[in-house]
Amino acid sequence: MNNFVLSILLPLTSFVAIAVYAVALGFIFYQLHHHTSFGTWGVIILGLVLLIATPVIAYFLEKRTNS
Question: What is the pTM of this model?
């Protein structure tokens, strides 16, 4: 594959991946807030879990790959 195709395909692929992730996460937050008994607190707790769990998982993955 030539460099021109890669220079178009790579940013487009990353844009689509981020958009799919954002829409899916927004849908989960919306459903959690409007269709469960958790309401706003459920969204806050899920956000905190994502905020804390993401760096922790990245730390352990980095530690495992450096060994």
Answer: 0.75
Does 35 have pLDDT greater than 70? Answer: yes
d(CA 25, CA 18): 10
Helices (H), 1-67: 3-35, 39-66
């844009």: which residue's tokens? 15
Residue identified by tokens 């495992």 is 64
Helices 39-66, 3-35: inter-axial angle, 10-degree rounding: 140
CB atoms within 10 A of CB 46: 16
Sign of the dihedral defined by the CA atoms of residues 55, 28, 26, 36, in that order: negative
Whole-angstrom distance, CA of residue 46 vs CA of residue 50: 6
Per-residue pLDDT band at 26 (split at 50, 70, 90): very high
